[in-house]
Amino acid sequence: MAKVTTVFRCTECGWQAAKWVGRCGECQAWGTVVDAAERTGLRRTATAVAPSEGNAARPITHVSTVAAVPTTSGVAEFDRVLGGGIVPGAAILLSGEPGVGKSTLLLEVASQIATSGQRVLYVSAEESVGQVRIRAERTDAMSDNLFLAAETDLASILGQVDAVAPALLIADSVQTIASDTVDGIAGGPSQVREVASTLIRLAKTRGLPVILVGHVTKDGTIAGPRLLEHLVDVVCHFEGDRRSALRFIRALKNRFGPTDEVGCFEMTGDGIAQVTDPSGLFLSRSDAPVSGTCVTVAMEGRRALPVEVQALIVDSSAPNPRRVTSGVDSARVAMILAVLERRAGVAVGGKDVYVSTVGGVRLTEPAADLAIALAIASAAADRAYGHGLVAYGEISLAGEVRAVTADRQRESEARRLGFGTVVDASAATLAEALRLAQRTAGPAATARAATRTPTAAAVSIT
């Protein structure tokens, strides 16, 4: 006879232990480990089952791709991130901090698809249908083909899908939906796993695209088990600073397209707007050249965005000079200051240094090193560069200017916006780059500024 062994299992995540413990060793939940009373020691093996006629294996050259052709969502920036549109049967997970605009964006997507004549079911597990309608009226997202339901029970949601027969299902959010077949509260690992797997299975069997809204934790990761990200086809993250109206959506995982695309949006009083050309959002509007400024070209996914870096240097009244940064890495700025003083002879050791970006954008790539160094040098000498100058490149501790990725795309974008002087890795050293930048200063720079007309950001209200 098989040996009977008592096994203790966590009702939240399924973790097992040989003896009872008060706290789960996997999800760290208290009081969830109970006696599972399972029989172990019997090895079970799966038996072969003949495949059905429709599921029989066939050569890859005989597989049709018609059912996997993406359809537009009506929001071009969202389609850009997804890889061209929403693929039938796809499971998409959209995460983001509270209040960033996830529900507003998805309500706009639902409205655009409903306006095209297809039915959309929007299931809100956090708001009532009246609250969703108020937001829809404010954003002009009203359509007779957009169906609303306030449900938190998984079985009820499946019944709503059978009744409506939608072309798109939106569940807001996966952490607030629960199933009666699984123990635990909504949002627990076992509940999230069951809800997600059921909705994904529904998407695959019916060819129904499903968009799930996911909560995030304090450190910005998606709440719930990591298995959730493995189950879905696309993982998108919606991010933005609450002090700024600009929002970015990027794909962290995409089985149907690239993961280096970025969609730009702007939150307005009437909802969310697409920013199709954000090139002018991060540049100052000053007509005359100002000392301590330099423009770089940053890469956001496949997009090249010009960003202005500003620096201010004043005499310090404290024993330890201040180093204040906004939008750039403070450790990177400290390194650039040391290289400037040691390799280029720019004396800033006894002065307060302030470095910031325009528009609240954050520069994290090393390509911004050269622009930061030139802005600091311009502020230290109190001499402005010409408006037609743009710089990008990584600075090493030896004072060398190193090449960066996508340099041709950066230069092409700079030329398109009217920048006539590009300082990059063609300048071998930082000292040489400073000499090239200083040639743009003076009266000629003011004359060149009058001919430069950077393209403004084109904002289309959807």
TrEMBL record:
Residues 352-462 are annotated as: Lon-protease-like. SMART domains: AAA (SM00382). ATP binds at G96, E97, P98, G99, V100, G101, K102, S103. Pfam families: AAA_25, Zn_ribbon_LapB. SUPFAM superfamilies: P-loop containing nucleoside triphosphate hydrolases, Ribosomal protein S5 domain 2-like. Residues 67-216 form the RecA family profile domain. InterPro entries: AAA+_ATPase (IPR003593), DNA_repair_RadA (IPR004504), P-loop_NTPase (IPR027417), RecA_ATP-bd (IPR020588), Ribosomal_Su5_D2-typ_SF (IPR020568), Ribsml_uS5_D2-typ_fold_subgr (IPR014721), Rubredoxin_2 (IPR041166). GO terms for cellular component: cytosol. One of its GO terms (molecular function) is zinc ion binding. A motif (RadA KNRFG motif) lies at residues 253-257. The keyword Zinc applies. One of its GO terms (biological process) is recombinational repair. Keywords: ATP-binding, DNA damage, DNA repair, DNA-binding, Hydrolase, Metal-binding, Nucleotide-binding, Stress response, Zinc, Zinc-finger. Plays a role in repairing double-strand DNA breaks, probably involving stabilizing or processing branched DNA or blocked replication forks. Belongs to the RecA family. RadA subfamily. The middle region has homology to RecA with ATPase motifs including the RadA KNRFG motif, while the C-terminus is homologous to Lon protease. This is DNA repair protein RadA. The lineage of its organism: Bacteria, Bacillati, Actinomycetota, Actinomycetes, Micrococcales.
